[in-house]
Amino acid sequence: MAQKMPWSPYKFRTTLTRKYDFLVVGGGIAGMSFSLKAARYGSVALICKTELEEANTYFAQGGVASVTNLKVDDFGKHIHDTMVAGDWLSDPAAVEKVVNGAPDGIADLLDWGVDFDRNEQGDFDLHREGGHSEFRILHQADRTGAAIQESLAQKVRECKDIDLFEHHFAVEIITEHHLGKIVTRRTPGITCFGAYVLNEETGQVDTFLAKATVMATGGVGSVYTTTTNPLIATGDGIAMVYRAKGEVADMEFIQFHPTALYHPGDRPSFLITEAMRGYGAVLRDPDGEEFMHKYDPRLSLAPRDIVARAIDSEMKLHGADHVFLDVTHKDPEETKRHFPTIYEKCLSLGIDITREMIPVAPAAHYLCGGIKVDLNGESSIGRLYAIGECSRTGLHGGNRLASNSLIEAVVYANAAIRHAAERIGGYDWRTDVPDWNDEGTEHPEEMVLIRQSAREVNQIMGSYVGIVRSDLRLKRAWNRLDILYNETERLFKTSKVSREICELRNLINVAYLIMRQAMERKESRGLHYTISYPPKVRKEEK
Predict the structure, then answer these.
(1) Residue 212, Cα to own-chain centre: how many angstroms?
(2) Report field, pTM of the whole predicted structure over 0.85
(3) Which of 393, 390, 389, 417 minimizes the C-alpha distance to 405?
């Protein structure tokens, strides 16, 4: 039995201690890519809070960006497009790393069984999306994310060196704090030794010790009511790392996808891929008039932040809940062939997209910030890596260029395993990590309080921290969230930990980070648009 801590705010007593070379938290494209490569170097535990097939990756429709047609495209164009979309806030080194590494990432996906659509000549059937100067989006119809998730999940399940733990929820990462040391944000050399993980079937928390730990927990879409993310996107990894005193950056840059299907009551919202605008679909106001010419010369193919704000402006101007995306002028059979999933979804709601316009509205879609990492994917906490949407690599800057995220996950998964594999032999497991004691706690009697608090977080964020912000709105949101934070921390300290209370706690943590970092940015830049600091025209925009 591991020794007890003299004092701890954590209330679990674990029943099992497991040891792995690599602990991976999150089962999307980032977590699975890392796991498949890590299995060559040691034992791997892959933690998923639901089933492996449920992840943000699954819901990605558009595709994967990579320079493949060298007759018209080149890496320099892709790099420039990424920098422009990121409002020149992207880290050039990270941009070059992902763009130059994309072809190798595509090769990995092909090796893992992902099929991308090809034309009659056998070449990739490339799409173009907003912000891209060339056709460079590889895809499988309009279900690219699903195709990737299914292919990689099959490979993971077949790999004997990966132990898959579904319906397991990582509660906290283990650092020196759990060994009785006082840890602050100024403490140097903080190290991660693994994580405490709730087994939802038994209700117990196990200790997973690891030589290297990887956060691949996805985004934060569920902090908003209207989101294209699955509802499991509660920012768990970011919140855990922040509480462990790790660095988190650029949380103010929340990307709202301009065109989510408007159908009240749906949560998550169904995504209408940007590839449809690349295909030729036109945005129209409630009167059926094209409006993007008023906002950007690239019209409907402008970057997402511009399009989302334009739609938001038109909705307010017309007092409407949505605008329209019109693809009725395109060949009906070609539309069905390119977008079968969208066609069937809309048809199920009585909308024939070959004859009728699609009602759309912006929805929270992607987080450009997160756990700050270096070019190896390593965080400010030693032996802890972060990859995928939960990480802040510097690639996206102020706004993500369409279809850059999936390839970023693969490229950084490869970088992280190369770095970790070179060092894993010099690490060992900590044998003095204590069990997590749950003495004095009870199961919360009123789960309705947790659900209601989560709804209040959604309402606060949607009302005050949305597409358009102001200092006054952010301050009002801060004051309201502070009440919820204190209530939830008191509940957490007296309750037996459940996934529900942990997700609420994490949502509040990431909402706080979004607000705080939005308040600290005294300018309108990229996805952070505030009427308190109107945007300025910079030299590179002239």
Answers:
(1) 22
(2) yes
(3) 389
Q: What are phi and psi of 50, to 5 degrees?
A: -130, -135
pLDDT band at 444 (very low <50, low <70, confident <90, very high): low
Q: What does 354-395 look like in DSSP terms, one character per residue? A: TTSPEEEEEEEEEES-EEEB-TTSBBSSBTEEE-GGGEE-SS
Collapse the DSSP code of 205 into the 3-class scheme (helix H, G, I; strand E, B; otherwise coil) and give the result: strand
pLDDT per residue as tens digits for the range 12-55: 444 689 999 999 999 999 999 999 999 999 999 999 998 887 77
What single-letter DSSP state applies at residue 117? Answer: P
Q: Is 304 a catalytic residue?
A: yes
Q: Residues 296-354: pLDDT tens digits?
A: 998 988 888 889 999 999 999 999 999 999 999 999 999 999 999 999 999 999 999 99
Q: How far is it, in rounded angstroms, from Cα 368 to Cα 397?
A: 7
Determine which one of 128, 304, 309, 505 is catalytic.
304
3-state DSSP assignment of residue 538:
coil
Place of tokens 């005294």: 522
CA–CA gap between residue 16 and residue 539 (Å, rounded)? 59
- What b/e sequence results for 322-357 when a residue is b if at least 16 CB atoms lie within 10 Å of its CB, and e otherwise? bbbbbbeebeeeebeebbeebbebbeeeebebbeeb
